[in-house]
Amino acid sequence: MKCPEHGVDYETVRTMYEQFGVILKDVKALRCPVDGEELFTLEQAEAIRQRITTLSPRLKLVRKITRAGGKPSIYLPPEIVKEAELKIGQEVAVYLADKKKIVIEAAE
Ligand SMILES: [Zn+2]
Question: Model-level pTM?
Answer without folding.
Answer: 0.50
